[in-house]
């Protein structure tokens, strides 16, 4: 097979011309922005995915079109590597350069990538593409597919799928189906079979009730949940809200990000009994948080930290009962609530590590354990099992019930990336086995009040951090000032970091009381405005009339 790089240029010029010269960067979750500027980015990512597949000797590479929890007018794209991981870091800059060259430079630039990476363009390549249900996603999917075709690659379009489903398809295909069948049906089958075996027809147990409200954020997760319901033998009664069929927009006043950041129920929440278990997922269903309202009407959140502690504690129990020797570990980020970390270290006696924000950092670190549990507070996370763990568990399952349970859990968990639906089924399984309702779950420890702020600055990259983003090294002096402020608050902790997905600096604060937390976040926010080139109006003081 011979390819003609002229075709790439011709496609780009005629169909996907670059309409903006603004520099864009492959960030923590790929490229993201307003959909109308993304056609040329998508086309070029199709080209890059094909090259990457050839570079990886024909392994399947995934391309997911989604802007996750962003508002509906945004879209985005990210590449999935052969083992289901995020694109290797050294290729992120290749992606950035490729997207920023002009149409005229494109042909030469592609030739340069081929040469520098010794890519044999005569070999075959496979790219899987999926998209969320934004109205502009089909247009952008075609652009990706054309990018693959321009380089004579093979493209398989999965249509509307969740991000974790696409990761699953990539891994299933690359493991020659050892991980599962690379089809939508194969995915449902694998998860539902494991879930139903784990329920073992005991649908309710102790305080655990078999009903849940599922907020689909008007995104793809809602659609897929409806497919799950059709296929599940009423093993769980799920009521789906924000299904995306009404006037509601993706992530607008609903979904995991809204519920977590605003710390309130989705706006369209129906009247439900106090203490009803509810879950929210984000627009592409790779994050999940739980919540409920108590009998006084007060909102309670059970976020990624809660899920992590529940899962870690349960896995530890099973491993102990199975009398097997495996290295367990939990990976968090600086956003993890201090109370959760204390609980894990002091009560569960589970090893914990902290890494910078972004799935690739957590996933990578989790692979260092036999059973690595990772979760971001925002609800993104999963569990990875080493080959050694799988073999040890399989052997123990011959005699031990708890090891059999572990084997089924491995099938239920989407190890390739955080999967809101799989994670939810996992939490439901654990709560059912323990006989817990949300009150039992939330009472394992008390979260410290926490608050996040966004601060606009001239250039967010003036902020540099170290120690898993917990210490700010630039601009000079900022950390010293933060330390002074934090010292005034009981159980105070605060850090600042440039966002990887928005043009802002993020401030996180936690302290013993809500009032203290608000004040601490405000004081640190002001420090960022003063010392890191703040723009826009000064932050509003907590408790003032404008709040
Ligand atoms: C992206 C990351 C997520 C992280 C978030 C932080 C992936 C797939 N997603 O959504 O893990 O929590 O960015 O956003 O890595 P921020 O940098 O704007 O705070
Ligand atoms: Mg997401």
TrEMBL record:
Please cite one Gene Ontology biological process associated with this protein: cell wall organization
Q: In which pathway does it act?
A: Nucleotide-sugar biosynthesis; UDP-N-acetyl-alpha-D-glucosamine biosynthesis; N-acetyl-alpha-D-glucosamine 1-phosphate from alpha-D-glucosamine 6-phosphate (route I): step 2/2
The molecule here is called: Phosphoacetylglucosamine mutase
The UniProt catalytic activity note for this protein reads: N-acetyl-alpha-D-glucosamine 1-phosphate = N-acetyl-D-glucosamine 6-phosphate
Cofactor remark: Binds 1 Mg(2+) ion per subunit.
Domain Alpha-D-phosphohexomutase C-terminal, chain residue ranges per copy: 481-523
Task: Please provide the record's keywords in A-Z order.
Answer: Carbohydrate metabolism, Cell wall biogenesis/degradation, Isomerase, Magnesium, Metal-binding, Phosphoprotein
Q: Where is the Alpha-D-phosphohexomutase alpha/beta/alpha domain?
A: 58-92, 107-175
Which residues bind Mg(2+) per the record?
A: 68, 282, 284, 286
Q: Keyword check for Hydrolase, yes or no.
A: no
Please tell me the species this chain comes from: Drosophila kikkawai
Q: Name one GO molecular function term.
A: magnesium ion binding
Query: What cofactor is needed?
Result: Mg(2+)
Active site, renumbered:
68 (phosphoserine intermediate)
**What does this protein's UniProt record list under function?**
Catalyzes the conversion of GlcNAc-6-P into GlcNAc-1-P during the synthesis of uridine diphosphate/UDP-GlcNAc, a sugar nucleotide critical to multiple glycosylation pathways including protein N- and O-glycosylation. Catalyzes the conversion of GlcNAc-6-P into GlcNAc-1-P during the synthesis of uridine diphosphate/UDP-GlcNAc, which is a biosynthetic precursor of chitin and also supplies the amino sugars for N-linked oligosaccharides of glycoproteins.
**What EC number is given for this enzyme?**
5.4.2.3
Q: Per its UniProt record, what CDD domains does this chain match?
A: PGM3
